[in-house]
Model the fold of this input.
Amino acid sequence: MFVCELLSGLWVGSPEILQNKNFLVDNDITIIFNCTQLYNFPDNPDIQKIRLPFPPSEDTKCIEIMKINKDKIIDHIHNHIDTHNILIVCYNGKTISPLIVALYILKYGKLNKKSIYEILLSKDPQLSLWCDLDIFN
Done:
């Protein structure tokens, strides 16, 4: 199981964290982005659940899905990050989830991509920032 808080109130994790009720309660998670096709959401009616059905590998299909949905995803995070704690889950917690956070920081943090990569990797060096952020502009 992997979980990491990348920004205050913005977490990334692997699917196993979805069933960890203590984590969800202790960190007051109220919005979950589930970036998998296979894993279920926790049984909690108080959590807003958003499914982003990415395939289980980083490939061109993932990039296309992200290109189509990135503005909706990032804007939803931005509109709720001040009042909600958000968990973004992908298959291993270290690929698609941090990519979403990187795109969020790129849009709202006004940092260059090198700085974004350095910030995220300082949180956990195992994060896989597997594609160039420039392809999403």
